[in-house]
Amino acid sequence: MISNKSRLLRLLKYLYRNSDEEHMKSRFDIVAELSDEESSYSRHTVADDIRALIAEGYDIEISQDGGNQYYYGTREFELPELKLLIDAVSACKFITPAQSRTLIGKLNGFASIYQAGELTRHIYIADDVKPTNRQVYYIVNDINDAINRRKRLEFLYQDYDADKKKVLRHGGEVYSVSPYGLVWDSDHYYMVAYSERRQMISQFRVDRMKSACITDKDAVPAPEDFVMKEYVQEMFGMYGGEPVSVRLECDNDMMNAVVDKFGESVQTHRHTAGTFIADVKVKDSPTFYAWVFMFDGKIRIDSPGSVRSTYLAMLERAAGSAGNR
What we know:
11 helices
């Protein structure tokens, strides 16, 4: 015979996975399902065990309609919350398809078997590109641990060559950094860290990291004037370049695009009846110019002249390259 504690646990598991508000279980159902060679349930033991679970704080609801029926009530996650989490996992680009399926399976475990059917999602992800680097899942955890422990992190960094093969950067040099934070931008994770090699704060794509390990060396403390939020705002797309203040002249229907990129705190003011000015701080980089270009002239670089000239020169080089083919 199983102990009373084991019997309570079996009952709790059964109700959690096999009942909800739309699918209640009677005493007869419970007795028929849980009675076996090791345990024997009766209407009285079920009622006693239900009362014991309720006394311990479990939300077991009792319905009096058509005789006593029971179901597990409030759960860790409501169905809308689970659906949202599953959509986020499905869309997340830093975990592989296999890891997505595993996580979604675990999330299904927070619902009853009947509710799980409602968790079948029909979300279609634009630009659905999942990574093949399974290590990313664990590297993110190592980075967080290194930050919490104030230790340096070592890793190898990878690039793709012209044959689409992964090659180690700098001939397999081991990078040693003091991580300060993780940033999620444009569907990728980036680690912000002080680089021993560069002697400066830099950012690294986590999905391009390999063989990360936490060392016993103390991390280099961040400078006193370093503010992660300000750094992230200035990085603009996580690519290199010097921070620069830029004035953009934008058509009125571009306000959504500007707010989406720079946030609601972006400084803007009316310019003409059909345009507005946005003063932003960005990194002077190809990523910034590519963002401006994608709006087909509806967002224009007004100043400084040096940034405007660089953009025009890039357009001329691109047009020249296309014309020479």
